[in-house]
Write a structure and sequence with these properties.
Helices cover about 70% and strands about 0% of the residues. With about 120 residues, it is an all-alpha fold. Helix 3 packs across helix 7. The longest helix is centred in the middle third of the chain and has 18 residues. The protein is globular. The two termini are about 20 Å apart.
Amino acid sequence: VGSNVRDAACYAFWAFARSYSPSVLRDHLDKLAEAVVLTSLFDREVNCRRAASAAFQEAVGRQGMASFPNGIYVVTTADFFSLGNRAEAYTSIASKIAKLPEYRRPIIQILYEQKLFHWDPVIR
């Protein structure tokens, strides 16, 4: 999937977070939050990492802290500027977020299934 599609998906989540009440999105927020946090940490394109971070920040702000355990910690740790450096996002920031139980397994899973044997050696 191209970076323009991944960027648009982040925008769609950002728009959903702005437009719908927490009661409408409640059943989907866990999976959506997991996907955008993983994108913010591990996408190879900086614009996608930053778009995912912005979408997550909007969702935490609009949907409320009850919907996102440790949401403020994730927002402040994986912010717009810190995600600008891919190596920093993959190592330092991801290891901080992986300490949170709700993101530990998905982070390990994406690293094992998608990044460990990635076609681009820089991503490995």
